[in-house]
Amino acid sequence: MEKKDPKPKGQAWSVIKRYTEAAMEHPWLVASVFVLGLLAEITSIVSPLFVSRLIDTLSTGSAAGVALSVLLGIIMMYGLVRLGGWLSSQLQNVTMMLLEMRTMERLDNTAFGTLIHHSHSFFVSHFAGSLTKRVSRYSSVFENIFDILVYNFFSTLLFTIGVIWVLATRSIYLALAVFIWSVLFIWIQYVLVKWRQPLRVERTASQTKMIGVLSDAVSNHDTVNLFASWKYEKKNFAAAVANWRKKAIKAWNADNAISAIQNIFVIAIEIILLGGAAYLWQRGIVSVGDFVLIQVYVIGLINRIWGIGGSMRRLYDAFADAGEMVEILETPIGIQDVPDAKDLVVNGGSIAIQDARFAFGEKADLLSKFNLTIEAGEKVALVGPSGAGKSTITKLLLRLYDVTGGSIAIDGQNIAEVSQTSLREAISFVPQEPVLFHRSLMDNIRYGRLEATDEEVMEAAKKAHCHDFIAALPEGYATHVGERGVKLSGGERQRVAIARAILKDAPILILDEATSSLDSESEQLIQQALDVLMQGKTVIIIAHRLSTIMKMDRIVVIERGTVVDSGTHEDLVQKKGLYKKLWSIQAGSFTE
Asked: Based on the domain organization, do 390 and 490 belong to the same domain?
């Protein structure tokens, strides 16, 4: 279903660019984070100096020879520096929180806003669960990346520079050893993490695929139950889990190898610096306090640089996670408004389809040189065998897809040149299988016209003959219908969808098998409501049950993407054409 073509390097730069743009909308917060971080690290470097001085003072004098005020003064300065560092860290944390929350809010809105504008073909080519995960992870990954950059990389860089500078005042050789070791250790970790990153990308991709398989099975659980396919679905999911496990184990083994190499480097620098400090102390170059200072610095430096490897791994993981959403952000939106698109102005609702061509990808044309004109206020039914192109025509009219040739116009305005919002506001569409939001029935019906009052919603429900069953529910119009409306029967969902269309009251009405899910009694009631709804509107009806379209102004017969006949029901049954054949089959089944 979904093709995975990870490009870690390109994705990383795209992620950095987008995250930087979002964060820099708050430049003062960004500056404050780094300035406060700088102050905190300065105190981390300075505070051990007072400990070193205190130890030297204690070790070089007797208890009687050292004034208490001197010791207290050193301790007081140490405490003030530590307090300043603590305050700087706390302020940095608060500033980080404000910056990250505001940036994450912006990223969430951007991700959802871009996703929701993608075309119909995009959504039918991706798992809903996979898309949901990508959007939800996008902003949280920013928090992870920014924390790593500030708390790990930035602070480690400052601390390392400070340590090398202080050690250089004691011994240039110690400073040089720490510098070489730091650069070498970080470089080796970078090489190892880069070697490991493809394994992490593969693991992330396999996890995404596993979630997609899970989402697909859960969203189709009714079909699984009806076909008793539990074993097959469990086997299918188990295969996805097994693939993820193999990828995860490979990544885990790589982690262990990296950890082993890190341990070797840490042990080496500890031995070198301990030996070097002991040698310098024996030569009188460094004091006891300096010896302790070196150990404090080395331990702190090891802990920080050791964490660089883990930070790099988490950073690459974060880039891989965010990169999945960036792919969506950088995927061109299939159906877009032309620059400065004007709003559609509907005066009567006439429709003209001229020489329209359409095909999915490289497949043969579904429509080829298709021509159809519908006058304003005319009620037209489209009939024909399955796959003839009837539903495709309605999708092209709604611009869920664009024609690959020819044009479609409403009241003389090419729909490719008007805004999609105005186009779809002018059309009410009731599909064969309506899908409802997991929201209240009031909200679902009001979706037809969001500014409608409760009274207008209820009036539309009455016209669609769904008020009675809604009123009988324990929570009435406040009843939530479940994901995709699963708590309602097919007929109930259909009537709610029709109520939504009645409330919208658009000048053009499209009914795609709108009464197919209703029983005969409900269909009769809905037909009465539709007769009222269709007054003064341009109507297109798709129906396989020909008995429902006999009163249409015109019936257009379509076969293999081409209009093969047209006329009233009485005209067409008199001809020896496709319509009479279809009618004879259905009429025969009625009498039999």
From this structure: no
Same domain? 413 vs 278: no
Helix crossing, 172-219 with 230-282: angle to 10°?
Answer: 170
What token pair was written down for 95? 């500033």
The answer to whether residues 408 and 440 belong to one domain is no
Nearest residue to 526 (alpha-carbon basis) of 542, 505, 511: 511
- CATH code for the domain in which residue 294 is found: 1.20.1560.10
CB contact at 8 A, 367 and 442: no
Let me know if residue 2 belongs to a domain.
Answer: no
CB 353 within 8 Å of CB 393: yes
Domain that includes residue 421, residue range: 338-426+507-521+535-592
Going from the C-alpha of 99 to that of each of 31, 47, 311, the distances in angstroms are 10, 29, 21
SS3 155: helix
Which residues have a Cβ under 8 Å from the Cβ of 209 and sit 6 or more positions away? 2, 4, 240, 243, 244
122-139: string of b/e by CB count within 10 Å (b at 16+)? beeebbebbbebbbebbb
Same domain (yes/no): 342, 479:
no
- Domain match, 495 and 546 both: no
Q: Would 529 be classed as within a structural domain?
A: no
Q: What is the pLDDT along the chain (592 residues), one digit of tens a residue?
A: 344 444 445 567 778 888 888 888 888 998 999 999 899 989 888 888 887 777 777 776 554 555 667 678 888 888 898 898 899 889 988 998 898 888 888 887 887 777 777 766 666 666 666 677 777 777 778 888 888 888 888 888 898 888 888 888 877 887 888 888 888 878 877 777 777 767 777 787 788 788 878 877 887 777 777 777 778 888 888 888 888 888 888 878 777 777 777 777 777 777 777 777 677 777 777 677 777 777 788 778 877 877 777 777 777 777 777 777 777 777 777 777 788 888 888 888 888 988 888 887 666 667 888 888 888 888 888 888 777 788 888 888 888 888 888 888 988 889 888 888 888 888 888 887 777 888 888 888 888 888 888 888 888 888 887 888 888 888 888 888 877 777 777 777 888 888 888 888 888 888 887 666 566 666 676 777 677 677 788 888 887 666 667 778 888 888 888 888 888 888 888 887 787 787 777 655 433 3
463 and 546 co-located in one domain: no
Beta bridge partners of 512: 542
Residue 492 belongs to domain with CATH number: 3.40.50.300
**Residue where the block lists tokens 């497949």:** 363
Q: Among 540, 534, 573, 568, which Cα is nearest to 554's?
A: 568
Q: Where are the beta strands (DSSP E) in 362-498?
A: 367-374, 379-383, 405-410, 413-414, 427-430
Q: How far is CA 164 from CA 44, 65, 108, 150, 184, in A?
A: 13, 34, 42, 20, 15
Joined together, the tokens standing for residue 144 give: 């992870």
Strands 413-414 and 405-410: antiparallel
Task: Tell which of 330, 364, 387 closes a domain.
Answer: 330
pTM over 0.70: no
Task: Produce one character per residue of 210-244: b if its CB has 16 or more CB atoms within 10 Å, e if not.
Answer: bbbbbbbbeeeeeeeeeeeeeeebeeeeeebeebb
- How many domains in the chain? 3
Regarding whether 319 and 194 lie in a shared domain, the answer is yes
115 and 80 together in one domain: yes
